[in-house]
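Hey, weird one. I pasted the SDR family oxidoreductase sequence into the form twice and got a warning about non-standard characters only the second time. First submission, copied straight from the form history:
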Amino acid sequence: MTLKGKTALVTGSSKGLGRAILLKLASQGANVVVNYSRDEAAAKEVQTAAEALGVKAITVAADVSQLDGITKVYDAAVEAFGQIDIVVANAGMEKVNIPVTDVTEEDFDLLFRVNTKGPYFVLREAARRIADNGRIITISSNTTTVPQVGVGLYGTSKVATGYLARVLALELGPRGITVNTIVPGPIDGAGIFTDPANDEYKKSLIAMVPIGRLGTTDDVAGVAAFLAGPDAGLITGQQLVADGGMH
């Protein structure tokens, strides 16, 4: 219970990787803010699962690719818990297998709104509102470090927050706040790998991983819990790659 008494806000936490991170933080004692955009039933299930771990939890419906949605989540968190100690900018959209020549302006605008603009302002609000000695964590992708056919748009849209985290680490360091980025590889059972139609693509990626398997949401959640906890107090401005050695 190393996070007992802390409050954690995880964007996009009704399912997938965000859900796993939020419940891992809750298992270590943090009260949690479940953010979702559409699936209320899934968010309520996560809230119930968190409360079963003995912590307090709220759900907040908000599109965190837009500034008014981001403000809504932070306002609700402060109203419910008084302060915010941990922010995980997780919400994003995966869109791969698109050659650069096939990317449309609509594709570009959508991914940069969700994967770049949204996390940028989530981190801006975190910098304004998080308590001293807090923890800020962003979620990137190893497509930013391992170029592959078809990931030009997605990988580019995920680059910016890793850079911003390094800048924020400098700006917020005097307040004892750490800012780090997790760089996962492909996650089995999440994103596009919930669709059996992508099984062949998954096999091709597994062949690139030295440890012989894709990551799981629990793998990444464990890294997030470490960065959010007391043992990571001197780790800031870093990118922790969790991709089984693909990079």
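That's the output from the first submission. The warning seems to come from a hidden character in my clipboard, not from the data itself. Helices lie at 16-27, 40-51, 67-81, 105-129, 152-172, 199-206, 217-228.
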